[in-house]
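Standup notes
- DV: blocked on the single-chain target, sequence here:
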Amino acid sequence: MTAITPEIVAEHGLAPDEYQRILKAIGREPNLLELGIFSVMWSEHCSYKSSRIHLAKLPTKAPWVIQGPGENAGVIDIGDGDAAIFKMESHNHPSFIEPYQGAATGVGGIMRDVFTMGARPVANLNALRFGAIDHARTKQLLRGVVAGIGGYGNCVGVPTVGGEVNFHPAYNGNILVNAMTVGLARTTRIFYSAAAGIGNPVVYVGSKTGRDGIHGATMASAEFDEDSDSKRPTVQVGDPFMEKLLIEACLELMATDAIVAIQDMGAAGLTSSSVEMASKGGVGLKLVMDNVPQRETGMTPYEMMLSESQERMLMILKPGAEPQAEAIFRKWALDFAVIGEVTDTGRLQLEFKGEMVCDLPLDPIGDDAPKYDRPWVKTPPRAPLGAIKDTTDLMGDLTKMVASPDLASRRWVWEQYDHMVGADTVQRPGGDAAVVRVHGSQKGLAITTDCTPRYCFADPVEGGKQAVAETWRNLTAVGATPLAITDCMNFAAPTRPEIMGQFVGCIEGMAEACKALDYPVVSGNVSLYNETEGQGILPTPAIGGVGLLADWEISATLAFKAEGEDIWLLGAQSGHLGQSIWLRECRGQEEGPPPPVDLAAERAAGDWIRARILDGTATAVHDCADGGLLVALAEMAMAGRIGATVAPTAGLPLAAWAFGEDQGRYIFTTKPGATLPAAPVPLLRLGATGGAALAVEGVGAQQVEALRLAHQAPLPELMAR
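- DV (later): unblocked, structure below
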């Protein structure tokens, strides 16, 4: 038997005081297997020990919320007996070490979270952050991650319909790969993970267990150093074709009444799935490790329990349902094995070769895991911007901006994804939000992912507000009613008070926005220690938003539709340039506070423009976000290949009018002479569509085709080098 030394405890990511807590909880020294189980279950990735007390501040309830945080995914009621089930997860550390498999298994894992609940996955999205576009590793990482996302999603047959890609030097040593899946189920056929029924069989289905991914959860809960490449064996290996079989087999069994509880084997594999199911159900589990399907010889219980081999599920079945379930899984060429039973002991007991090799109380492993209120300091406010030299070449600045890393076309990325498989994608990537039809109905789901990390770094509270508000705005811009969000909280080391302060601030801002917009959080993920040798990422609380269209055919897109239409700006203008892309790209400064978010005005403007979409008055709609008003106009012009002539607003410097990133604004078009009701926020006619150029009266013009070519060139040129 391996002696448990302080070095072995440290290798398992446990602090000395945490080990003392284990000794007290179980009344003896653990063996290596038991230490490994505590190690993964008490990791940040599984226990949320540094974030739980703050996550509790987020609003999670609404009349349409069926299941909030705490299950595999969140569930909302979308009417007519239909439910949308969705979640976002991180796979950051694995994707930096091995980009293809890291990204691919991130997609596979989040899909399992969703179909575990009884939903058929209908859409995948992602939120990706890479280092500087000219950094030595960016091209290789971007290529691998995009190939992994496309390779997995395309093979499984779930469309990848949207997302975001950003570049910043803060991610040079630690990229972010956040994956989101949305599925559809009937409200009467939703499955949960709490084990129940003493004596009920515990069943393992899917792929065999191998040695890949061991200690993946622990690795994902530690910062990188110069030896990070040595962690490559902790990256899982995915098989999308096996996942497709697993989806079909699970959904077929879910059509029966055989399943009592079900949980996917994600981070920490068989350990997390068994512990979480038993803890939620208030029961015990006894597992016979010899019965676990294995693809490698000589595997130990330690390896089997900590492996993160992909495409596996754990189920509790009703007694006598085993033959029916086995027949289904064998038909789909998947492994099926009864590996244990539900007990009344409240303990996790593992037997191997006739010996009891693990006997642990479940409460300390799960519900009673450490919970830390770590020290934190508030992010100091940024000094206001001083005098900024106004633009002397408005159209030159615009052309530079649409070709900048943050604003250049992502077509090279999304063309590698199958976004039309299933034939229900009705708004493709490239707009404010994707729209997927609810199969067999007129309803549509609008889906988006958003975050502006530079805002969160400058002011976490306002940045957290803005991240939520921007998803709400993007869903609204296609005509949807926003219903709920999932989040993926990506931050550096929580042991640093300034980083913990960023986390606390972002949570505060998110909570305020969710409450003001009636937009609860129903699921999410926390990814900490995103840093390399002390260099942390920007605080990145990625938000995935889901909204509902009563009729997907009554929706809006951003492209100008015809010449001679009126162009309008809805929302107040102050010309805020702090933390703007123009300030960085054209003046070389990342300074000042981010734009404030007026949540009352945000809601009023959104409700008003949504009504104009639904009554048919608005012919094109686009929210004003990164780059400001002139960039949004350019995006509408490029999408429709129609120019426009607009007049600048008197009283604002030209750069502030054109590129200020004031929040809560929409640009929309109407047919000439359309009657508009009074708006609750400022409403201004900017000009009209028409011609081949985007022109600003009295200032200058740029051909739309020249803008389009500049906009689309950067990523293909980078990847061709």
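- Follow-up: The domain at 556-721 is CATH 3.90.650.10 (Phosphoribosyl-aminoimidazole Synthetase; Chain A, domain 2).
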